[in-house]
Amino acid sequence: MDRNNLLAILLITLIVAAWLIYNQMTAPDLPEKNQNINDSTLVEQKAQTDTASADSADDILSDSATSANASNVNELKFGKTFAPFANGNRKVITIETDLVTAKFSTMGGDLVKWELKNYKKWDKKPTQLISDKKGELFLEFLTYEGKKIDSRDLFFDFNLDKDYYQISGKDSILLNARLNVAPDKYINKTFVIYADKYHINTDISLQNMQSFIPERGYNFIWSDGLSYQEKNSVDESNSAEAMASMNGEIEYLNADESEEQRISPTGIVDYTAIKLKYFVAAIMPRPQGDFDGTIDLSGRQKAVRNEGLVEKYNMSYRIPYRNASSTNKFMVYIGPMEYDILSEYGLSETIDMGWKWLVRPIGEFFMLPILQFIHDFVPNYGVAIILFSILIKILLYPLSIQQMRSANKMKLLQPEMEKLREKYKDDNTKQQQATMKLYSEYGVNPAGGCLPLLLQMPILYSLWSILRSAIDLRQTEFIWWINDLSVPDVLVSLPFRIPLFNIDQFSGLALAMGVTMFIQQKLTITDPRQKAMVYMMPVMFTLLFSSFPSGLNLYYFMFNLVGIIQQVYINKFSKNQLTLDDLKKAPKKEGWFQKKLREAQEVAASQGKTVPGKKAGSGGTERKGYIPPKKKDVKKSSPKQGGKKKK
Questions:
Q1: HSE value, Cβ hemisphere, 13 Å, CA-based, for 44
Q2: Mean pLDDT score, 200-208
């Protein structure tokens, strides 16, 4: 590149830089927060534009309304009745309690902020659950003029004068927001905030509004769900959903697609709720069972940066307006998914504890109380989980010991089975028959270890549900690098994601759990045909569990470790060491599996078929009391000349 080109590039760069600096110096100042909102800025918000100014609000309207002034703009949008309330000074009142910091705005008379004082976001910022900046718990209705009104666009009058209030103990404060449409005609919203509660009571009253609002009434709405609080948005989206408890049943809505999904159940409503992994917002009619009507739940899923996902949900009550004076009362809970707290409100079922009729009762009435009891004496939740896992392993000992003994019997038979495989390596049918005969001879049930494992599965799954969703583990430190038991304890990070498992990090406790699983497999699996499982299963579970909470991995690590100790004791130090002779001499008890196999053999034999363990036409398996039919005498033929008789 010659000198002229370099000079040209330098000159262009200087001109562009000078132009940018000049624009920044001459740009108008941005409006301050809480500044009075005039007509034009209100139009800008609703039209979602950045370029309209106070002098050009008419550009947003259609060509037929380009000459309208600001008041006509509001009239076209809100109608003659509600247009005057589209202008006003936005005022925010802050109410601080022992548990939350709440903010209410005169623009809409709505709740615009709900910050929990005892919880933090993943980045240590305050937990603020209101997702929509315009506010929640708003009204939406259609007027006789055909205008769709969102109460968040109108300015209400508050009964409180100061900007900040603080209450504590058993105190409460009443905030009244009123829209005086005409003398003795108004919309009134009342909020009662309690110092020691995560809920507020709200009443919505319409007085003599029948000439403006039809009988179809209005919708009482919470929109856009809750603000995400965890670092892993995919994990939080897996727990996010909307639900409605009505008519004695719960209906769920899970937004697993990008298109909006909607349900509109009708009946007697107990509550509607929108939940994340650890927090929930629920609207309950007061008194319970007082609302018999239709609700709308809708949700959508949206992809965000870094392969993240966000789910947004809306819940809405359809409230008819049939009397001149109408009041509907609700209780609104916005807080943590803590079991003891939610139980007070009848919201405990918002916590996912597994299948309602089997797994959930085990977790709700047995596992969770035990864990909480241990934590009452052991403040460190990591140590409490260790003690909890040891206790559960002891309680499951009768089941696990049967599983271990069955594994030991199979281990003793392994050399004999190897001989049979070698003897009948070219005949699978005979190999199966000889194997089943071997099981019967030594009284070994090949499925003996399956039943104890199946009986443990509901218990283990309920534990998984509790430890995965327990808010008590959230941001709780343990030791060393484990500073949050509710998220994976990252020990190693990779510059790429592992396919299928979609992880780019390894959990230290998941690795420890994988090692203990490998040792357990080595102690119990002796069949050479299953040798691959000894290595594959620990690797797969390590990869899978690397995305699980560290509290859950700590439990499984300790559970496996105690299991190894039990297995080593049985194998090395138990006084009742079994031998093949012991198995052979022991009284044979026909198990369920063996009984079903024998019955299948008998049925197959009666039909002239062959089943494993018996030749065709044998008439069934040999057993005590069974007398085979006598064979008919057959005249033996003399051997051919020159041949030899077999001895």
A1: 14
A2: 94
The one-letter amino acid at 15: I
Please state, in angstroms and rounded to a whole number, the distance separating the CA atoms of residues 122 and 114: 17
Give the separation between CA 560 and CA 390, rounded to whole angstroms.
Answer: 10
Give me the pLDDT at residue 32, please: 36
Q: What integer is the mean pLDDT of 352-356?
A: 80
- Cα-to-chain-centroid distance, residue 377: 29
Query: Side chain identity at 33, as an amino acid letter?
Result: K
Of 327 and 425, the structure prediction assigns the larger pLDDT to: 327
Distance CA(587)–CA(93), nearest Å, equals 81
Q: What is the DSSP string of 346-396?
A: T-GGGS--S-TTTHHHHIIIIIHHHHHHHHHH---HHHHHHHHHHHHHHHT
**From CA 287, how far away is CA 557, in angstroms rounded?**
47
d(CA 640, CA 152) in angstroms, rounded, equals: 111
CB-CB contact of 460 with 431 (8 Å):
no
CA dihedral 368, 374, 380, 382 (to 10 degrees): -60
- Provide the pLDDT for residue 584: 59
Strands 164-166, 92-96: pairing is parallel
Residue 412, sorted as left (phi over 0), alpha (psi -120 to 50) or beta, turns out to be alpha
Instruction: For residue 576, give both structure tokens.
Output: 């009742």
pLDDT in tens, 118-143: 999 988 898 999 988 888 999 999 99
d(CA 274, CA 84) in angstroms, rounded, equals 34
Tell me the C-alpha distance between 351 and 349, whole Å: 5
Strand, helix or coil at 9? helix
Q: Terminus-to-terminus CA distance in the chain, angstroms?
A: 107
Distance CA 118, CA 582 (A): 62
User: Where is pLDDT greater, at 6 or 442?
Assistant: 442
Rounded to an integer, what distance in angstroms lies between the CA atom of residue 486 and that of residue 463? Answer: 14
Burial 597-626 (b: 16+ CB within 10 A, else e): bbeebbebbeeeeebbbbeeebebbeeeee
For residue 548, what are its two tokens? Answer: 């699980």
Q: Tell me how far apart the alpha carbons of residues 72 and 57 are, in angstroms, rounded to a whole number.
A: 11
Q: How far is CA 227 from CA 84, 239, 647, in A?
A: 33, 14, 90
DSSP for 59-103?
GGS-GGGTT--HHHHHHHHHHHHHGGGG-B---EEEEE-SSEEEE
Q: Output the six-digit token pair for 512.
A: 């420890």
In the numeric block, which tokens belong to residue 350?
A: 């918002």
Helix (H) / strand (E) element for 18: namely helix 3-26
What is the pLDDT, as a whole number, of residue 127?
92
Distance CA 598, CA 624 (A): 13
Strand-pairing partners, residue 101, are: 96, 115
Confirm whether pTM is higher than 0.85: no
- Range 300-308, long-range pairs (CB < 8 A, 24+ positions): 300/255, 300/257, 300/258, 300/259, 300/260, 300/261, 301/237, 301/255, 301/256, 301/257, 301/258, 302/258, 303/258, 304/233, 307/234, 308/233, 308/234
Instruction: Look at strands 241-246 and 266-275 and give their pairing.
Output: antiparallel
Phi/psi at 363 (5° precision): -70, -40
